[in-house]
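Tip: read the tokens left to right.
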């Protein structure tokens, strides 16, 4: 008999419950059960035979993949629930056509483009460190920026005992009390731009993600979301090295 079992966190991700990493956290917390038994990391399931529940609710694989873009405002944390009752992005996508979760994250004080999906394979590919999918940010900093500081951002800065990957940086606007930079990153480390700027003596006044790959935020209003077009999904899949799916 063929072994149709897959890792539990992969199954949860494919069903749109959460990303693989978040699914592992759910398993570790004891929230996931397989056939009535509390699951453990490393467990595998047969999607056709095993009954999986999260917080007592049965997990059912969703038939249609959904891909949406949110313009995240400041003050919201990138999570679908929060035990401290803080504002989270789940509040902003509660009327989405399916249960979705964020692909990657933006910190609480950052804003801009955040992608959501229930397609676990897509989410995993887009965030995998080996894919180097470009993410573009508009960053307002103080005080004025020197050429030396720009060169450091572009060539790499040691943060958390590891040098950042080369980035693209250009000055968009330069005024007496602020400078607006466009920074393109090809890796996704935690609070990376803020830490890079802090390391070279720049204060970040505003940080907004404006694009992922070649897909741009555009004029989407803060706090609003829209579905990605088929062409936008195709572009992101290609950027992540995926085989393009028909929608």
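Filled-in amino acids:
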């Amino acid at each position: 008999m063929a072994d149709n079992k897959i890792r539990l966190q992969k199954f949860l991700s494919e069903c749109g419950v959460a990303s693989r990493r978040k699914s592992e956290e759910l398993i570790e917390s004891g929230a996931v059960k397989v056939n009535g038994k509390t699951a453990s990391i490393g467990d595998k399931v047969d999607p056709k035979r095993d009954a999986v529940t999260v917080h007592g609710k049965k997990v059912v694989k969703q038939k249609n993949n959904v891909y949406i873009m949110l313009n995240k405002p400041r003050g919201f944390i990138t999570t679908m629930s929060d035990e401290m009752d803080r504002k989270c992005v789940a509040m902003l996508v509660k009327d989405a056509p399916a249960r979705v979760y964020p692909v990657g994250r933006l910190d609480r004080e950052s804003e801009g483009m955040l992608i959501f999906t229930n397609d676990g394979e897509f989410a995993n590919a887009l965030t995998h460190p080996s894919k180097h999918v470009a993410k573009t940010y508009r960053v307002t900093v103080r005080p004025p920026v020197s050429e030396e500081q720009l060169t450091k951002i572009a060539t790499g800065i040691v943060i958390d005992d590891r040098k950042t990957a080369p980035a693209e940086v250009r000055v968009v606007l330069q005024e007496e009390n602020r400078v607006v930079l466009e920074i393109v990153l090809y890796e996704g480390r935690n609070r990376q731009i803020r830490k890079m700027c802090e390391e070279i003596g720049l204060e970040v006044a505003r940080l907004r993600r404006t694009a992922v790959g070649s897909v741009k935020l555009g004029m989407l209003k803060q706090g609003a979301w829209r579905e990605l077009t088929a062409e936008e999904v195709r572009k992101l899949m290609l950027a992540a090295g995926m085989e393009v799916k028909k929608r």
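The chain is about 20% helix and 30% strand. The longest strand covers residues 203-212.
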